[in-house]
Request: fold
Amino acid sequence: MAKITASVFTSHVPAIGAALDLGKTQEAYWQPLFAGYEYGKQWMKDNKPDVIFLVYNDHATAFSLDFIPTFAIGTAEHFQPADEGWGPRPVPVVKGHPELASHIAQSVIQQDFDLTIVNKMDVDHGLTVPLSLMCGQPPADKFEWPCPVIPFAVNVVQYPVPSGQRCFNLGKAIRKAIETYDEDINVHIWGTGGMSHQLQGARAGLINKEFDSAFLDKLISDPQGAADIPHINYVREAGSEGIELVMWLIARGAMNDVAGGQAPTLKQRFYHVPASNTAVGHVILEN
Amino acid sequence: MALDKPYLDVPGTIIFDTEQSRKGYWINQFCMSLMKAENRERFKSNERAYLDEWAMTEEQKQAIMARDLNWCMRTGGNIYFLAKIGATDGKSFQQMAGSMTGMTEDEYRNMMINGGRSVEGNRFVGENGDAQTQNQPQGSAGKKAH
Reply:
């Protein structure tokens, strides 16, 4: 049977991708941030998953205002890195896992979550920056990500976005779905986006370290408490784009302890301000 | 019955809800078109002509040509869509976000390096934080323009 062995949480700031792609990782501005991911990169090598279920949001890339799915699961064989206006990032094509993705889609819809099934979709920095942070840039002679990835896009752009509680419950359903997949594979579930940031208006640049720190505490030790946070608290305390943090609750809801198992082991907790406009948070939990 | 919109009293913030989205359909779809290199070229070579191909209001076109992102957002634009205009101009997200505050690029960058904007005084309209209406514009870029 398939098992979720770990969850990874990280911000997915586009400027991090640009810093990686332009070779700026050793600059004084960026060095402390990338140092915080050295542990995670080694951990990925030591704990290589067979599949990553990657929760992220599309930033007006694959989904314009023509279609706005709340939850979209990528069931394709391949996903191309998108041209977001600066040209596509020079990173590998993302290989999907159509069999597991279809299995999850069927199971989760039967558990009353109405997923949109997507067979053609480009993926933006929301998905590729976390892969770059955790996997590094693959070598030219083996230009591929270490394993297949199932993209799972959540609408956090147009309000109302799904509540933290709904995301948390969805994580529980995804866990059940993965555990009923017959093949013995090791799955990571990643939650990305956040932490505090606001990209608009006179309040642009808002950072709230106290909120972020309390959120990390809850995420790790009291996930139901994190799921109870209403939307308006994210907006008011963590900035209009801080609402992305609800996506972390999908990954957290899929961990064993939420279904009555043992508390996860904390392998990494990192926090840094700033990356461009944003507070960066990163956590690794093992089941 | 009125809809529940508890976010209307957050200062300096426009939440992109279904009402804003309806107003901003064409301005945002125009932005999406800039994800194609040939459209970026066409827009850059004659902005007005390219904008006239879209069913936007005149105000939305003026807001885009002025590169006034706060104005664009008031007319229904969303920052993730508007970012395609910034990308076309070779601007980073930080430059775009900073442009909405009245600060110069350096002032905004320094604020972020120093830990970002504090939430104190900026949670509710009517407080006295730096994002409140009575404290605009915030930086020397905005003061020059006024």
